[in-house]
């Protein structure tokens, strides 16, 4: 009774013990009548925030560790910056003897006729188109793959091609079918090219993050544009009143509009969730349609940076190539599930039930196009073939 105690039955001392160990000792006491003293379990216990043995409160990296830590941000900086050790020489090479004829007209001027069989001045489409029956000509000159090919506006007497060899070439379609001029001015492969409305200038978009505007007659670079992101597609505005504007889809999910007169960005359309692959003007150039790696299609009102319609479906795939029908009512889209899907190009922009399959385009951005009378639809193939299907 004289012993010190703080309860009626004795003295209770605070102790830190593991919950599992406490329950184990309690059952041992009730079964066998004895248990371990709590001090045995807590000897050397410093709690959950105790330090490890030989742990240092302040640690500094040694010479080797410091070099490794400094190398990580240096690599990230080198990966993101554009390396320009020396100015790249932008030049063009003329491959024909005379750039002008006896009347002072350049090669951009379309000839009147060829053997009285081809009229380049006609504005009406052919009433009837026929399937190709024989191979006519092969243009050779590029050292690597061709990424983009475009006819000369309206007359189509010239052909412009951009290649992975960082060069753009201009070819004759009729006559001797020569290579007229080679344009060199990019450090990396050409991704896309685009004529202006009159065919006097064209754009070249490259993986070096630059878009350059060239004079097709003199071969000189007029302007350079960059947003520090890779441009995947570019296109001049088709309206003559807005011919000084062009749009480009970039790898950072944006569509950027530049003014060629000042070189400034005048508008940005930022709603896609992936890199923008195509830009197609519809509805008398009041709207344009874009497709992206996010497997969606968006329709925009010109100069309004919010999409007026968003088309996405779980069954849809990425569409890296889109072309507008000659009657401006339909859009043919190359889908990466080895199909060509048709969308309405009018107010509803609804997917048509008509689809075309049988070719292999998965992993490739194969182009496609309509015949002038809309009888046929032609498409490239990943195996190097050309498929022609009946549209009507």
Summarize, please.
By secondary structure, the protein is mostly beta strands.
Shape: elongated
Point out poorly predicted stretches.
none
Q: What spatial order of strands do you see in the largest sheet?
A: 1-7-6-5-4
Structural class: mainly beta
Radius of gyration of CA atoms, rounded to a whole number: 35 Å
Figure out the total of helices. Answer: 3
What does this structure look like?
The protein is mainly β. It is built from three helices and 26 strands. It has helices spanning 19-32, 38-42, 63-80, and strands at residues 91-94, 113-114, 118-119, 146-151, 158-163, 167-172, 179-184, 190-195, 201-206, 211-215, 221-225, 231-236, 245-250, 255-259, 265-269, 276-282, 287-292, 296-301, 307-312, 321-324, 330-335, 339-344, 351-357, 368-370, 376-380, 386-390. It has a five-stranded antiparallel β-sheet, with no helix packed on it. A hairpin with a 5-residue loop joins strand 20 and strand 21 (330-335). The model has no long low-confidence stretch (mean pLDDT 88).
Note the topology.
Elements: H1 19-32, H2 38-42, H3 63-80, E1 91-94, E2 113-114, E3 118-119, E4 146-151, E5 158-163, E6 167-172, E7 179-184, E8 190-195, E9 201-206, E10 211-215, E11 221-225, E12 231-236, E13 245-250, E14 255-259, E15 265-269, E16 276-282, E17 287-292, E18 296-301, E19 307-312, E20 321-324, E21 330-335, E22 339-344, E23 351-357, E24 368-370, E25 376-380, E26 386-390
Antiparallel strand pairs: 1-7, 2-3, 4-5, 5-6, 6-7, 8-9, 9-10, 10-11, 12-13, 13-14, 14-15, 16-17, 17-18, 18-19, 20-21, 21-22, 22-23, 24-25, 25-26
